[in-house]
Predict the structure.
Amino acid sequence: MNNMQTGCTLHGERTNVSALGGLGAQARGASGWLLPEIWMQDGAKRVEQALARLLCGQDDGATELMAAMRYATLHGGKRTRALLCLAAGALADTPAHMLDDVSAAIEMMHACTLVHDDLPAMDDDVLRRGLPTVHVKFGEATAILVGDALQAHAFLTLASLDAPGDNRIALVRELAQAVSAEGAAGGQAMDLSLVGKHVELDRILAMHRMKTGALVRASVRMGALCAIAEDAAHAALYCALDRYSACFGLALQVVDDILDATADTATLGKTPGKDAAAQKPTCVSIMGLQAARQFAPDLLRDAGEAIVPLGPRAERLAQMLQRANAYLFKHVPCA
Ligand code: IPE
Ligand code: IPE
Ligand code: MG
Ligand code: MG
Ligand code: MG
């Protein structure tokens, strides 16, 4: 993409003006920044374009692996993790082309966790993002391989970035840690081990921090790590980002637990009531619905407080909280 096709804004934000349907001028606020909703739409579009470009391989006619990988990544999803990466990248002045690929890698990894989470041996779900789950559509063996390959392609994308080796290693390490036994994989193991048990709330929160929070934390950190090393000079920045993402990630899973208990299929794009049916201890089953409804906005407020010291450059991260609050208000109205 050449400079004629792009508009540059503060903090390295760049948007493909043609992708906004000629809305360039109206889409900006007085400061020249893209208005939040337009920025989010544009970010989601950019990550989807990156996913389509990075997953463009063809199947050989006998297999459907690539088609299934595209099915798992390119059909919906709120793109929360990608947008968090872009928001942190805006704060760090990360170049847009790098952020596109990094956020696509994060969405590949997220999709991997979803495809595996839905498998018969895990949550045994038939619906995801309003469509049949990957194992329902393509078969269980292909779904397992889709997860494997998406994980590999995520790391391949990071390793192939047009960036110094130190940055690429930091990004690969960050994503690997997020889905390791200390992260999502460990949290998912805990989730399965707790079926049918009544456990303390602390245990549930620890599980949520691992199974969901770890990848959310990595998404935020990776946006910054593209451009800013985590060294002593930037300890305060990473501390603020960690507090923000810890609260955001936990809120995301608390809301997911609430919606599983309260929302309908059309809203969820998933089968509702699965957690109770599978005897999963969740924030709702342990805290009660009302307390969980109160907990989520409290967490989002704490996330907002965490980034106050970062000032106006954290504006996109603040807007992600507004988006999460709006989602909460819309779908969890009695909070
Ligand atoms: C669903 O995450 C699984 C959880 C970890 C809670 P999202 O609610 O972000 O799923 P998509 O990407 O929007 O489908
Ligand atoms: C999933 O949690 C967490 C992952 C790491 C994928 P859930 O099992 O509650 O997510 P949904 O409700 O199926 O999206
Ligand atoms: Mg699960
Ligand atoms: Mg599930
Ligand atoms: Mg759930």
